[in-house]
Amino acid sequence: MGCYEKNNKLTLTEAMEQYNKKFKKGAINLINAHAGAGKSYFVFNSLIDNTYKFVEELEHGDNWSNQLNRILYVCDTSMLQDSTLAENKKAIKLKNGSLIEARDKGGNIKGEIKVLTYSKLGALLKSQSCNNIILNNFKCIIFDEIQNLFTYCNKYNVDRVTNTYTDGTYTTVLDNLKDISKNVLCIGLSATPGVIHRFREINNDFDFGCIRTIFNKQELATIRSSNFKPIYTNCIMNQIKTLNYSKLNGRKIYINTNTIKKSKEYKKYFESVGIKAEWLCSINNGEVVKNIDENGNEIEEFIPTMTKYQLSLRDRLLNGIDEQGTSKGTLPDDLDVIIVNSGYETGWNLKDDKVQICFIDNINEDYQVQARNRIRHDIDILIVKGLYDNDGIVLEKGQYGKLIEENTNR
């Protein structure tokens, strides 16, 4: 295949065409391309407009552009849902009662792609009538950030006393995946699919059918990605305090941490040294959510109401400062540090080239990859939290509590 420099690497659409990849029913077709490869662009443009090129058993010229009302797009967070809606005119948020529109199969009915969260999909699948509509009337379901469906099952749908799964919205989606994939073309998107494979290895509670991974290792090496060369530390705050801020030369800082509590601590420190920083959290204010603190302990956090400035900053990142999307994905000139928590792991893009320094206060490698890739360009410094043994080997606390040794000299 030859040597691929960064600027010559393939977009996802180019890779799908070059390697003649096609989706088929009966499995979850997992697009395992890197963050920034163009997965969303592929779905909302190439796949919709030239469906026959990428789906088995379709005739030349067949496409779904006139049947968008029969496509569901599922998101892991409200942040990703809002971002998807803001970036795609072909999509609208699923409203109560609008599933029935998929029954209209007229060739001239265009409609829009319906966007919802995994939690909402699970609630719909609990209804037999909604379940039937999805199974019998939809052509395709896109599962964005599908790895978090499995993560959320373990995080939100487990009884900690009995250590068994509950009848929650996420487990409901998993329970129905196999049947859905037999009737509806299912496409999963994930830059970190290892979560899914580890879930299957240690879990016999669910039969979610076959996972068809689209790209092999050699093909992935030819697809676009941003640099990921972390420096490991056992304390992010110490690294922040020892950074030479006199040599930043206009560079800005992005911090991703687990908890709102830690976000506030970081902001307080930066304010104490004269650096303007701001933190963001979920817009689901008033809710109490389960989280993991910096020591790996499960905690519950109350989601506060963000200030007008915080909400305007969130809106700027998602939508820009006007209807044309000006300055979308960028920070205000006077803001040096943006701090987000786990609610911002996926679903938004930081396109500000001035952001060149990244701290990730989380020991899970999959999380680190997702969080780092909110920045859509190569960066100068990436510092992530790691665990060490007495020999200096980095120990990553795996998604399900396993300790995985990683030789940092590789």
Question: Would you kindly provide a brief summary of this structure?
Answer:
The protein is of the alpha/beta class and 410 residues long. Helix content is 30%, strand content 20%.
Can you walk through the features of this model?
With 410 residues, the chain is an alpha/beta fold. The protein has helices at residues 12-18, 39-49, 78-87, 118-125, 128-137, 147-156, 169-183, 194-202, 217-220, 236-242, 260-272, 308-319, 365-372; strands at residues 28-31, 71-75, 91-93, 113-117, 140-143, 158-159, 164-165, 185-189, 211-213, 231-233, 252-257, 277-280, 288-292, 298-302, 337-340, 355-361, 381-385, 387-388, 394-397, 403-406. The protein has 13 helices and 20 strands. The strands form five sheets. The chain has a seven-stranded parallel beta sheet with strand order 3-4-2-5-8-1-9. Strands 10-17-16-11-15-12 form a six-stranded parallel beta sheet, with helices on both faces. It has a three-stranded antiparallel beta sheet with strand order 18-19-20, with no helix packed on it. It starts with 11 loop residues before the first helix and ends with a strand.
What structural keywords apply?
410 residues; alpha/beta; seven-stranded parallel beta sheet; 13 helices; disordered C terminus
Mean pLDDT: 86
What general form does the structure show? globular
Low-confidence stretches: 1-6, 396-410
How far is the N terminus from the C terminus? 25 Å
Strand content: 15-25%
Helix content: 25-40%
Number of strands: 20
Describe the protein's topology:
Layout: H1 12-18, E1 28-31, H2 39-49, E2 71-75, H3 78-87, E3 91-93, E4 113-117, H4 118-125, H5 128-137, E5 140-143, H6 147-156, E6 158-159, E7 164-165, H7 169-183, E8 185-189, H8 194-202, E9 211-213, H9 217-220, E10 231-233, H10 236-242, E11 252-257, H11 260-272, E12 277-280, E13 288-292, E14 298-302, H12 308-319, E15 337-340, E16 355-361, H13 365-372, E17 381-385, E18 387-388, E19 394-397, E20 403-406
Helix pairs in contact: 4-7, 6-7, 6-8
